Amino acid sequence: MVAAERLQRVSHTMLLEAQGLSTKEQQASLDGAIEELARETPKDLWDMKP
User: Fold this and answer.
1) Residue 21 domain boundaries
2) Cα separation of 42 and 44, whole Å?
3) pLDDT tens-digit profile of 21-32?
4) pTM for the full model?
5) Is residue 22 part of a domain?
6) Do the domain assignments include residue 38?
7) How far is Cα 44 from Cα 50, in angstroms, rounded to an integer?
């Protein structure tokens, strides 16, 4: 969800600038963003208290 929202904002801007990605490129970008979030998110995220 987070990765998709980030990608959507960037894709919209790129589309306005006539630099849109193909469906295949969008999926590859989404996959990369998901992997990055998985690497960078603390393992104890759900154990933290607000």
Assistant:
1) 1-30
2) 5
3) 778 888 888 888
4) 0.52
5) yes
6) no
7) 13
